[in-house]
Every structure is written in C-alpha cells, then in structure tokens.
Amino acid sequence: MAFGEFDLIETYFTHRLPQRDDVTVGIGDDGAVASVPEKSDLVVVTDTMVQGVHFDQDTPARAIGHKIVAVNLSDLAAMGAEPAWISLALTLPEINDEWLTGFAHGLREICEYYNCQLIGGDTTQGPLSITVTAHGFVPNGKAIRRSGAKPGDWLYVSGTLGDAGLALAARQHRQKLNPDYERRLTERLYFPSARVALGQSLRGIASSAIDVSDGLLADVGHILKASHVGARISVDELPLSLAVTESLSAEQAITYALTSGDDYELLFTVPEAQRGLFDTVTAHSPSKPVCIGRITNEPELVQLRFGDEAWELPEGLAGFEHFRKTELSQ
Predict the structure, then answer these.
(1) What is the pTM of this model?
(2) Label partner for 294 (CA 20 to 30 A): which of 97, 142, 154, 157?
C-alpha cells in the first residue's frame, strides 16, 4: 500500500506531540477547535523556512524541526505572549523516513518544552518548504508592540549577537573558526532559544519590542519606523560571545553583531520610570539583558557611537531582507 498524506500525518505527528486541555478538536478534522482563556487576547504569528534560502541540504532535519517552531515562538515572546498551539504546512519532495523522523523529533522536543500542541496543518508534495503558524495568549491590552518607543527610553538586548551569523559564515567557508567555537556557534544557529519567559516578564514594563531575526540594525529600524523615533547605539556595549571576540577583529565583531540575523534575542525599550522595576524583574534572569543605547527624537535616524566617537558601518551592510541579497564581506 502506498504511503499517503494521511499515513504521513498519522505516523509522524498525530500522537507524538503534547496535548493541551484547551484544545477540543486537534489533528484529524477539517479544522481545529480551541479555547482562548477569558480576558486574554490571541496573538498569531507565521514563519516559513525554504530550503536554499533559510537552510541548506546539509542542515539536520531535527534542527529544522526545532528552528521552525523557535522562530515563531520568538515572535510571540517579543509581544509578551504565552505560546499555546501551532499549525504546520509541510511541503516535501518525497517521503523520507529518516528525514521525517528527525524533523518530528526536533518539533516534538521544543513543543514539549514550551507546552505547545500541534492542532492542524497541511502536507503537500513539492520543493522542501515548512510553514508554522503559532498562537499564543496575552492578557487583554498587554501585548507589547513595536510602536510604543518614546524619546528617552533605554534600548536593551537580551543576549549575545552575531553568533548565528558567524556560524553561517564558517559553514559557507567564509570564516575559519576554532573547532570548539564552531560547534558552539552552530548550536546557536541550529537550535535558537525563544526568550518566552523574558517576553512575558516585560509586559507593562517594555514600551516596545521585537526579536532580532534579520540583524540588530534592521530590526531596530522596524521599531524606529513604527514609533517615529530615532536611536543612539553604543557599539562598544553590544554583548558579544567569547567565540566572536576571539575569532574576529573588533570591527568585524561589531559588524556581525549589527547586521547578521538568526540570533532571536529580544530587542526592546524601557522608559526611565520603569527601569527600577525592570532591574528587579530581570535580576535573576539567566540571560541578563544589556543596555546598548537610548531612543532619540530624530525619526528613523540611527547614530552609532564607540565611546565618544561616531562609528560607521562598512558600506552596503544593514541586515537581511528578502528580495535584497546581502552578504558580510570578509
């Protein structure tokens, strides 16, 4: 008997993922039925990963399963939301048991960790492409948006920058790394962490937030555009891992931190009046956020400073954007 679409769903996805009490109807019907808690808003995010654009044929299937969920949960985290459900649209060139087993394993691991249930989706045949839509909850009116930053707010980032970009450069043979550093950075590239707990703790404290997916400069630009403000960034305060600082010159390290994506840290603003509460809430955070600058009143203008001096990014580098190809020059 041929192995068809419904066999695929039943074998790899139906019974292998967490089950939540708020899901009445999950996989197996024409649609899912789930309940949103009282006094909560529903936050919905979607991301797609395509072979040849977001990963290559050598990327482990388990890593792809993890990452496609992580990038969605990172978006939920940026809005202060609690993850709940995901749906999956999976396009495969063929049914490959080894690949599907690894992919389902990566998907299951991260869903179990964050208590997300797979409630539906679709499978089709074609070039390898994966789309996940994630749903989460936030108390009514408490979603953190990009549009709330005000002049004088402090700009923070939740963890080290440039790690995933440097790992990618090493994989593409554009940068040679110490083998131990390459293993650590590749782990960051393949298995990013979504800062879900931090995002929820920022409700009512952060005035704006976004996750760093396309590069710090590109993503801070989204906040500045939405909020009609500018920013002054102290590049000497950017949090960098030992692997980055010991593998690159100071200028290269800063450039990677500003322009390379896939780190999935949270970038957010905190008003002066909330800094005390913010420090209290994040005092015991495993990834203590770092202040890297301040919001200004000059719309969409980014000033880069190294100490008291202006710092300029090498020409042509800004961050990743679809339909515009950019690459870090070495």
Answers:
(1) 0.91
(2) 142
